Amino acid sequence: MSQIPPSPMNLRGAVDLTSLVNRAMTAGQPPAAGAPAAPAGEQGGDVALPSLYFEGTDANFNDFLDLSMTVPIVVDLWAEWCEPCKQLSPILDKLIAEYAGRLVLVKVDVDANPQLTQAFQAQSIPAVAAVIGGRPVQLFQGAIPEQQVRDVFEQLLQLAAQNGVTGRAAVDGAEVPAADDAEQAEPAPEPLPPHHAEAYEAIERGDFATAIAEYKTAIAQDPRDFMAVAGLAQVSLLARLAGKSLDEIRSAGASATDDVDAQLLVADLDISGGHVDDAFDRLLTLFPKLDAAGKDAVRTRILDYFEIVGVDDPRVVRARARLASLLY
User: Fold this and answer.
1) pTM for the whole thing?
2) Given CB 3.0 to 4.6 Å as the disulfide criterion, which of 8, 19, 23, 265 pairs with 140?
């Protein structure tokens, strides 16, 4: 029942899915047994934990969202009956130990925790996701090789550094020793360009308008700033979805199948939930029916999605070819 993709998902266009995860959580519950206490320190500091390995449940996952403000969380969605899960699990355990507190692993039994399974959009297992600063990031599905998992973790740490989540877990009050004591410390990540930093801070505050303005300024100063282009596409999507009811978006899209605005909003929702192919298919199927203005709106939105997902992603490559055939 597992699906092994040709390559891990590119992390540079990760989408803020906080609202989807929070929707699946039960508000107001006290921390459950086995969950770590929320860290008291700031982003980038150390946090004392009893272990680097935890069992995540529908009841205790809010505490891991808090922990992810300090240390990146890797989430392993598995089941007892899943043979590929048993192949992947030792690889994850080994690499978490090697990263020596820079990552924490949370294992989620999908059969026992349907809310988390839905929140992380786990359509097949094993599925591995992450949480950085309270935001989930989809990583990969299937029992991929160890080196490929390592590559994904390296990308994950880069993304975490860009968001200021550079803390380290200490077990029993002491920092976890590195797997190789001779290994040199990695250089500190380069600081973000000023407008990027301002945009990230604005996103943290929920001030999407300011973040959009900062990214536009960065692009005006350097049209080849591709990270700003991707950031602008991402935060624009968040702004369009902010404050809207997910059920109302779906209902409007179902009742107005030829309405451009309604279908664009449903496609936004698909992208934010990781249903990339669904979003592309929805808009590309609608495209031939539209007038010139509608086609331009859909084309522009699809190009934004290319930046969010990553221009080298196979789903983007397929959609780009399909769009080109419709245009020419």
Assistant:
1) 0.49
2) 8
**Continuous segment of H or E residues that includes residue 107:** strand 104-109
In eight-state DSSP terms, residue 222 is -
- Cβ atoms of residues 9 and 140 within 8 Å: yes
The Cα–Cα gap between 200 and 218 comes to 13
Report the Cα–Cα distance between both ends of the chain, in Å, rounded.
39
**Sheet architecture: strand order including 168-171:** 46-49, 168-171, 174-175
pLDDT in tens, 302-326: 999 998 877 777 888 899 999 999 9
Contact 272, 17 (CB under 8 A): yes
Which position among 15, 52, 82, 199 bears the catalytic label?
82
Q: What element of type H or E holds 180?
A: none
3-state secondary structure of 269: helix
pLDDT at 24: 34
Q: Supply 165's token pair.
A: 């989540």
φ, ψ of residue 283 to 5 degrees: the values are -75, -35
Rounded CA gap, 37 and 271, in Å?
A: 33
Rounded to an integer, what distance in angstroms lies between the CA atom of residue 255 and that of residue 111?
A: 34
* Of residues 5, 15, 9, the one with CA closest to residue 151: 9
Residues 8-35: tens digit of each pLDDT? 333 333 333 343 334 333 333 333 445 5
85 is catalytic: yes
Q: Is the pLDDT of residue 140 over 90?
A: no
3-state secondary structure of 106: strand
Backbone angles phi, psi at 296, to 5 degrees: -65, -40
DSSP 8-state code for residue 69: T
How far is Cα of residue 142 from the mean position of the Cα atoms in its chain? Answer: 17
How many CA atoms does the CB half-sphere of 240 hold within 13 Å? Answer: 21
Torsion of Cα atoms, 279 then 223 then 196 then 199, to 10°:
-60
Beta strand pairing call for 73-78 and 104-109: parallel
Phi-psi region at 34: left, alpha or beta (left = phi > 0; alpha = psi -120 to 50): left
